[in-house]
Structure formats: structure tokens, C-alpha cells
TrEMBL record:
NCBIfam families assigned to the protein according to its UniProt record, in alphabetical order: OM_asym_MlaD (TIGR04430)
Protein name, entry field: Phospholipid/cholesterol/gamma-HCH transport system substrate-binding protein
InterPro entries hit by this protein: ABC_MlaD, Mce/MlaD, MlaD_Phospholipid_Transporter
Coiled coil: none
GO BP field: phospholipid transport
Mce/MlaD domain mapped to chain residues: 35-113
Length: 154
């Protein structure tokens, strides 16, 4: 059984195009972790946040998630992240885990405060808001809709 030389050339060409595509995708995708100073934050729920996920300020990536651990005393998720050196965050900055749309992944959204002093490397963000999934939001809406009128509970 002999092979057609045209099939061999076409197979090599397909492999070459695939290799060029992989090199292009790796060099253009920003998959590297941000180099900067480390900060951490404690959350009750992280909702699918993964290591390597974005840390954004005003919608712009200023850092990346470098790790997640569980605090054995409080049972909270401890998220560590690196923030760019030139981004000096006020001490009262808030960290919120949010979703990038219905089908997007989760990321850490930073909301800067107004404090004069800034976070030092290794500091912990004290003000955090946990991830709120779509299921949680729908559950709250159903709960509010099924409450009798005037039963606000206040």
C-alpha cells in the first residue's frame, strides 16, 4: 500500500498551520499572572473564582488571583492576589467577587475607598462582598414576591 505524496504534504501543512495558530494564540492571549505586590481578602463564597482570574479596577485588569485557601478557624475563603506596583490602593478599598456576564467567569472587582494611607504588600483587604450567584438572586426575588403585603419584617 503506497501513500500519495499529496496526502503527506497536506498533512504536514495542516500540522504547520495548527502550530502557527497555537503560537499566535499563546503570544496574543494575556494568560500570564500579573507581577506586583501581594494582597489578600476573606470571603464566605468565591463562586467559581479561579487562580489566574482577573483583578479589575474600573474594568481594567490591574492584577491576578494567585491563590485560594480555606481559613481553618473561620472557614472563610482566603483569596490572595497580586496587584500592579504602580496601582496604590487606599486602605479602605472594597473587594467584590462578581461575574463577567451570564456565561463569563468570575473576577475580583476592586472599588477604591477614600483613605489617605495605602495598602502595603501583604496587607488584607478588610471590606469584602461575597459572590452572589444567579440562583441566589432568583431566590431572593421569589422570596420577596411571595411575602404578604406589609410584611417587611422591619
Amino acid at each position: 500500500m503506497t501513500r500519495n505524496p499529496l496526502e503527506t504534504i497536506m498533512g504536514a501543512l495542516v500540522l504547520l498551520v495548527a502550530a502557527v495558530f497555537l503560537v499566535f494564540a499563546y503570544t496574543t492571549a494575556d494568560l500570564r499572572q500579573v507581577k506586583g505586590y501581594p494582597v489578600s481578602a476573606h470571603f464566605m463564597k468565591v463562586g467559581g473564582l479561579s487562580v489566574g482570574g482577573d483583578v479589575r479596577l474600573a474594568g481594567i485588569q490591574v492584577g491576578s488571583v494567585t491563590g485560594q485557601t480555606l481559613d481553618p478557624e473561620t472557614f472563610e475563603a482566603v483569596v490572595t492576589m497580586n496587584v500592579l506596583e504602580d496601582v496604590r490602593l487606599p486602605r479602605d478599598t472594597r473587594a467584590v467577587i462578581t461575574s463577567d456576564g451570564l456565561l463569563g467567569g468570575s473576577y475580583v472587582k476592586l472599588i477604591p475607598g477614600s483613605a489617605e494611607d495605602t495598602l502595603a504588600p501583604g496587607d488584607t483587604l478588610e471590606r469584602t462582598e461575597d459572590y452572589q450567584s444567579l440562583e441566589d438572586l432568583v431566590g431572593e426575588i421569589i422570596f420577596l414576591a411571595t411575602q404578604p403585603a406589609g410584611a417587611g419584617g422591619d
